[in-house]
Amino acid sequence: MRIAITGSTGLIGSALVRSLRADGHDVVRLVRRPPSAPDEVRWDPRSQEVDTAGLAGCTAVVHLAGAGVGDHRWTASYKREIRDSRVLGTRAVATALAAMDTPPRVFVCGSAIGYYGDTGDRRTDETASAGTGFLPDVCVDWEAAARPAQDAGIRTVFARTGLVVARSGGAWGRLFPVFRLGLGGRLGDGSQYWSFISLHDHIAALRHLIDTDDLTGPVNLTAPEPVTNREATAVMGKYLGRPTLFTVPAPVLRIALGEFADDVLSSQRIIPQRLLDSGFTFAHPRIMDAVRAA
User: Fold this and answer.
1) How many domains does the chain have?
2) Could you tell me which residue ranges the DUF1731 domain spans (predicted)?
3) Residue 239 falls within a domain, yes or no?
């Protein structure tokens, strides 16, 4: 297959490119700068421009681009960047695909379990409605921006991603160095649920979404058994052989992270029901499996 990917240099995108190419697929990478390699195609989400000629023959497009939620303190300007990078980018790609004479068969659009907001200890699947707050609002607008592709009859799937457990990159990649130094510990009281997924399973799930013709709409990309922050902390300490005595109190997190701290402390017990129902098998269903693999 010929598959186009945005966000191909990020943690998930680069791993997906490697996985697809290892199996002989032709991968096209959408880049914001002038293309410098045969596999690159120009796009500009700000100006809503996509070089669709370079997407000719693509069976699938996987859209993963977006500013990192935890990369900077949430100032008003960075919150606009978080939203615009997702909404404008998705709208640009969806509109371009819809206008193609022969559009791709499937559009896999990145999204996030932030859609659900704070779910407490309630097991939550794809049938739940959106939560309230900045991140749920962003996710709602993000997914709505894919409407042109849906209206054009392109099978559109929203990959609502959880916390990806990886050695480097993403939120978990920042935890490993801290725990290796013996400075890891609970965030707040540690009772909040973390819905995780190993990088290996995330890539396998994205490929499953591409290949499974009857999957459309939201699909949660999380492992089947979410754990509390306290449980995740204990597992990290065990596998890295380090103490986990430190605790970061909620007030300190709010000083350090500002508004983003409330999302770090929120609880999301998200279940990948549609993924399970479609026959997907997790290689790392438990937190200990995911941390060991990372």
Assistant:
1) 1
2) 248-293
3) no
